[in-house]
Design a protein that fits this description.
Structural class: alpha/beta
Shape: globular
CATH topology of one domain: Rossmann fold
CATH architecture of one domain: 3-Layer(aba) Sandwich
Bound molecules: adenosine-5'-triphosphate, magnesium ion
CATH class of one domain: Alpha Beta
CATH superfamily of one domain: P-loop containing nucleotide triphosphate hydrolases
Number of helices: 10
Distance between the termini: 18 Å
Radius of gyration: 20 Å
Largest sheet: 6 strands, mixed
Strand content: 15-25%
Number of strands: 10
Order of helices and strands: EEEHEEHEHHHEHEHEEHHH
Length: 288
């Protein structure tokens, strides 16, 4: 088969915003992703869970071409973008907002300038249009009027929300959030969660959220995947995930783990390793 960056997937799925197909990535001979298959449904919130260092950020970076896979494909809206050149990726990236793991604001620029900076790079607009757009984004994240402040004058939660405002300023089709609530107090975490849900509802954006926080995961997700040993061990709608008997789910949810009576009755909780669970994909791995 001839290689082409424009090749369509075998079965283009109009409900998918983004797909990762059999993605492999190693660093210095150490594999991080070892055949990741993931579908990100359009207009939904998909959450990626996994231990520290398991490769969640690496996965997100592949989605926007900041990292290139050793093999496998990245498909955005039915288009194979795996082998695009950097110049072509810039166009694809305009469809994405990216909330970095650290808020990653420019400390020497005001909040306004932090948000305006990428807009100036990518769009032609008058000064008034730019100001209107920036103010609108700050309002969306509950920070109307703070544009003149410097990042150092803001709390951690406010800085995170400026990061979100910057991501939505580009009016992206999809927003990738890398641990948007780490280091925030519970009230601020909840606010970020509500914001993710609100943006998904009001702007119909596709969202991918990486988090370590069970509350956030349950509050925002439509779909949950778990990255373990370089592959997705679990890939399930949140309602199935919530009651899953898979050890990784029980461990992650901890006190929030509350299987339904039905789910509890269908397996012996004393032997989690033996429970058969519809969300546990570990036995399917060799299929691809
Ligand atoms: N650019 C890079 N060069 C070399 N190694 C890298 C690079 N990026 C990531 N890695 C390695 O890949 C592995 C996965 O890193 P990644 O940042 O994706 O983890 P993570 O799941 O996001 O962890 P955390 O929850 O702590 O953020 C780590 O071992 C990391 O050191
Ligand atoms: Mg990370």
């Amino acid at each position: 088969m001839s290689e082409s960056t424009e090749r369509l997937p075998a079965i283009p799925d109009p409900n998918c915003f983004l797909e990762l197909e059999d993605l492999h990535k190693s660093f210095g001979g150490t594999p991080v992703l070892s055949g990741v298959n993931m579908r990100v449904p359009k207009g939904k919130v998909t959450t990626i869970l996994g231990g520290s260092g398991s490769g969640k950020s690496v996965m997100l970076k592949h989605m926007i071409g900041l990292l290139r896979p050793d093999s496998g494909r990245v498909i955005v809206e039915g288009r194979d973008v795996t082998k695009l050149r950097e110049r072509e990726w810039i166009e694809v990236r305009k469809r994405f907002g990216y909330v970095f793991q650290a808020a990653a604001l420019f400390d020497s620029l005001t909040v306004f300038e932090n948000i305006a900076y990428p807009l100036r790079e990518h769009f032609d607009q008058t000064k008034a249009e730019l100001a209107h757009r920036v103010e609108g984004c700050l309002e969306s994240v509950g920070l109307a009027g703070v544009g003149a402040k410097m990042p150092a004058e803001l709390s951690g939660g406010m800085r995170k929300r400026v990061g979100v405002a910057r991501a939505i300023a580009m009016r992206p089709q999809a927003i990738l959030y890398d641990e948007p609530t780490t280091g925030l107090d519970p009230a601020n975490s909840r606010r970020i969660g509500q914001l993710i849900r609100q943006l998904q509802k009001e702007l119909s954006v596709t969202s991918v959220v990486v988090t370590h926080e069970p509350e956030l995961c349950l509050a925002v997700s439509d779909h949950v995947v778990v990255l373990e040993r370089g592959q997705l061990s679990i890939d399930a709608p949140v309602d199935e995930f919530r009651v899953s008997n898979a050890p990784a789910v029980r461990e992650f949810l901890g006190a929030l783990y509350a299987p339904t009576a039905e789910a509890a009755a269908s397996s012996d909780p004393a032997e989690p390793g033996e429970a058969r669970d519809p969300t546990d994909r570990r036995e399917e791995r060799h299929g691809g």
